[in-house]
């Protein structure tokens, strides 16, 4: 049906849809890039490349956001972020920063209890390091090995 | 119990067009088996000339999906129909979060006065001067 002479004589009829495939991703751009195909091709390609690369940056950005939030919340309770996190890890509370940030926003009382736990563990650490005497070991410093 | 989200499947094809050959073969051979295997889906077969062959799927939440079946074999149409039967009618876009809650906060959401002494917010009883 589509022999060589017929192929040579056929015209390109779906140029509109081929152009729309690219322009549909450029509709929210600013300036002539959202209307003119020639400018839109490069912009859409760069936009896709940037979005793939940004997926790796998003993880770093969100972690920094959680850390700032936890720092602000723990300073309200009189603790610095470094002390908070290190003492929580020493008391075998392995919560990640995302969860702690969500708790600090939506469950402030739970966060207050976590801050109190970290503060207590910090005091016990000081006693163990500076006391060096006949005082008993701290309660919250015990390590339980789960199976 | 499982409720199938697909309400009805409309098969529109033309009895004479060349690209509807797969649709016609599907109707002759596999449509009955498909209808028997999915008893809660209603299958409408309507031959209309002068139309591109199309498989119309309507879901319980009202979404209608059109799938072109021009120049497809009968097996491909069966696979397409089973895929549509397993879908729900939600839009096929990127889901932003894999979770959703209507009550995100149980202890009360944080506001700048949560951890401050309550003397700032609470008004004590008005004492009469004695």
From TrEMBL, chain A:
Keywords: Ribonucleoprotein, Ribosomal protein. GO terms for molecular function: rRNA binding; structural constituent of ribosome. InterPro entries: Ribosomal_bL20, Ribosomal_protein_bL20_C. The keyword Transferase does not apply. GO terms for biological process: translation. One of its GO terms (cellular component) is ribonucleoprotein complex. SUPFAM superfamilies: Ribosomal protein L20. PANTHER family: 39S RIBOSOMAL PROTEIN L20. NCBIfam families: rplT_bact. Belongs to the bacterial ribosomal protein bL20 family. This is Large ribosomal subunit protein bL20m.
TrEMBL record, chain B:
The keyword Mitochondrion applies. GO terms for molecular function: structural constituent of ribosome. Residues 101-130 are annotated as: Disordered. The keyword Mitochondrion applies. It is found in: Mitochondrion. Gene3D superfamilies: Glutaredoxin (3.40.30.10). InterPro entries: Ribosomal_mL43, Ribosomal_mL43/mS25/NADH_DH, Thioredoxin-like_sf. Signal peptide: none annotated. GO terms for cellular component: mitochondrial large ribosomal subunit. One of its GO terms (biological process) is mitochondrial translation. Residues 15-88 form the Ribosomal protein/NADH dehydrogenase domain. Keywords: Mitochondrion, Ribonucleoprotein, Ribosomal protein. Belongs to the mitochondrion-specific ribosomal protein mL43 family. This is Large ribosomal subunit protein mL43. It comes from Halcyon senegalensis. The lineage of its organism: Eukaryota, Metazoa, Chordata, Craniata, Vertebrata.
């Amino acid at each position: 049906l589509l022999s060589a002479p017929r192929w040579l004589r056929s015209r390109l009829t779906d140029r509109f849809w081929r152009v729309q495939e690219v322009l549909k991703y450029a509709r929210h751009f600013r300036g002539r890039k959202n209307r003119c195909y020639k400018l839109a091709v490069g912009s859409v390609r760069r936009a896709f490349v940037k979005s793939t690369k940004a997926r790796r940056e998003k993880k770093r950005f969100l972690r920094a956001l959680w850390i700032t939030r936890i720092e602000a919340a723990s300073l309200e309770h009189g603790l610095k972020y470094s002390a908070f996190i290190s003492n929580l890890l020493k008391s075998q509370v392995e919560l990640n920063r995302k969860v702690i940030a969500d708790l600090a926003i939506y469950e402030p009382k739970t966060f207050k209890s976590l801050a109190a736990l970290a503060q207590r563990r910090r005091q016990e650490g000081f006693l163990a390091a500076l006391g060096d005497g006949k005082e008993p070991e701290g309660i919250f410093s015990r390590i339980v090995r789960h199976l | 119990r499982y409720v199938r989200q697909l309400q009805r499947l409309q098969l529109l094809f033309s009895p004479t067009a060349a690209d509807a050959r797969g649709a016609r073969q599907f109707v002759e051979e596999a449509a009955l088996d498909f209808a028997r295997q999915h008893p809660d889906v209603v299958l409408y077969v309507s031959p209309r000339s002068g139309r591109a062959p199309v498989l119309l799927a309507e879901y319980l939440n009202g979404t209608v999906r059109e799938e072109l079946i021009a120049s497809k074999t009968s097996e491909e149409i069966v696979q397409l129909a089973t895929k549509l039967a397993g879908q729900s009618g939600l839009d096929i876009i990127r889901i932003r979060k894999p979770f959703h809650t209507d009550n995100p906060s149980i202890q009360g959401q944080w506001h700048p006065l949560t951890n401050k002494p309550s003397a700032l917010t609470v008004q004590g009883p008005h004492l009469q001067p004695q």
